[in-house]
Amino acid sequence: MKSSYIHIVIFSLLGLSSCRTPSSQVTREKLKSELIAVEKEFCDMAQREGVEKAFVYFAADSAVILRGDHLIKGKEAIQRKYSLFPTKGVKLVWTPDFADVAASGDLGYTYGKYTYTATDSLGVNHASEGVFHTVWKRQTDGSWKFVWD
Question: Where would I find the H helices in the chain?
Answer without folding.
Answer: 2-18, 24-49, 51-58, 75-83
